[in-house]
Amino acid sequence: MRGPLLFLLACMGAAHAADMTVLRYVDQDPGDPAYATRLLVTADYLRMDTGDDAGDFVLLDRRQKRVLNVMRDSRLVMVFAPGAVPARPADWSMRFDVEPAAAGTERYRLSVNGVVCSEGVVAPRAAPDAARALAELKTALAAAQYRVWQDSPPALQHDCDLANLVWGFDTLLGRGLPLEEREFNGRTRHFETESREPVRPGLFDVPEGFATLDAPAS
After folding, report:
1. 29-60 as b/e, with b when 16 or more CB fall inside 10 Å?
2. SS (H, E, C) 80-121
3. What's the whole-model pTM score?
4. Which domain holds residue 138?
5. Helix or strand or coil: residue 54?
6. What φ, ψ does residue 71 adopt, rounded to 5°?
7. Residue 216: DSSP 8-state
8. What is the CA radius of gyration of the chain?
9. Tens-level pLDDT at each residue, the chain (218 residues)
10. Distance from C-alpha of 24 to C-alpha of 51, rounded to nearest angstrom
11. pLDDT tens string 112-130
12. Beta-bridge partner residues of 121
């Protein structure tokens, strides 16, 4: 962790207007193989993919505050627009605890009613615009995430899903860029590298001829 983090901090302030921030993570869902996640961040967009320029991707339009899920095999673009999210229940007791860690990082823990929903390491000073873009992405998807939770069977409605995806993510991302994440369900994310690269506008274009489908409103 120390080597990649020091490189990340060293890059701060070195960006140019024609650059994009490229973050690479390794994600893993319980019982599945680990996979790469790449984030491309500009002033106008956030693209999330597996590192394949020609593959599927999720695109956040930061100006219009909408999310496009581009699926090449089906030639379909699913569009998510921000929606209303209900207020947190009055009986929720959500806590976000931090403590100093190595090399300018902090360990964090997000919990609801005594249950740890996510924990890991955050870098308060690293790639601040990328952290903002991630918060914007989750904000645009929060209403859809709440609807999925609401439509799930009661046995699958976990308060931690709401904490991580609807009501608590802004606390973490407002703190800084996550370097390590471990969620209550076993999902993990680990930071790999950060770099600055010239913007390639074509990576943020929706392919022509794809059908567009609006996701259900909240």
Report:
1. eeeeeeeebbbbbbeebbbbbeeeeeeebbbb
2. ECCCCCCCCCCCCCEEEEEEECCCCCEEEEEEECCEEEEEEE
3. 0.90
4. 2-81+93-214
5. coil
6. -115, 110
7. P
8. 18
9. 445 444 454 444 444 557 999 999 999 999 999 999 999 999 999 999 999 999 999 999 999 999 999 999 999 999 999 899 999 989 999 999 999 998 889 999 999 999 999 999 999 989 999 999 999 999 999 999 999 999 999 999 999 999 999 999 999 999 999 999 999 999 999 999 999 999 999 999 999 999 999 987 65
10. 8
11. 999 999 999 999 989 999 9
12. 107, 180
> Is position 19 within any domain?
yes
Strand partners, 22: 40, 195
Domain of 184, CATH number, reads 2.50.20
Strands 188-198 and 66-71: unpaired
Task: Indicate whether 87 belongs to any domain.
Answer: no
The answer to whether residue 134 sits within a structural domain is yes
Distance, in Å, from the CA atom of 212 to the CA atom of 218, rounded to the nearest integer, reads 18
Q: How many domains does the chain have?
A: 1
Specify if 88 maps to a domain: no
What is the C-alpha separation between 72 and 90, in angstroms, rounded?
43
Question: Rounded CA gap, 31 and 71, in Å?
Answer: 24
Tokens of 28: 């893993």
**CA–CA separation, 61 vs 43, rounded Å?**
10
